[in-house]
Amino acid sequence: MRKLLFTTILIAGFVCQTKAQEISKHALGFRLGDNDGFGGEISYQTKLNTKNRLEIDLGLRNTKYRNAWKLSGIYQWVWNIDGGFNWYAGFGAGIGTWNHKDKYKDDFDDGLFVNGDGNIGIEYNFDIPLLVSIDFRPEFGIVNNYGDNLDFDLALSLRYQF
User: Is the pTM above the cut of 0.85?
Assistant: First the structure.
């Protein structure tokens, strides 16, 4: 709990001392990372105002032993570091379902889950309509968490801006 409070205070401090950058109206692409075994997500970002955006990610997984989907929504603040180089932070939530069959015994598990999500990352806007970012997303299990009660998700994203 102390770490979460410290992170919130740190982010709020940076908010007051940095300036906003121009956010693209829309960005669509992929977010590739750990993400509780989802591996990859389809990612969409939309500009809300001059310094805020909404990111919506849909992760799907379909293997022989595990099927799952997860929808995440993250509200983000974006600040310019230099030129096309920016950093961002935000918070949101995720919801999804999973089912899992143990390959060594007749054990089956499934359910619905809800997560609270944090988000912090860096990105680079190229002169072409490409946005590359790397971010860290801690996910806190609220209802029937898929996996542990706390997951640390690190991902690389590639998005087309329009």
Answer: no
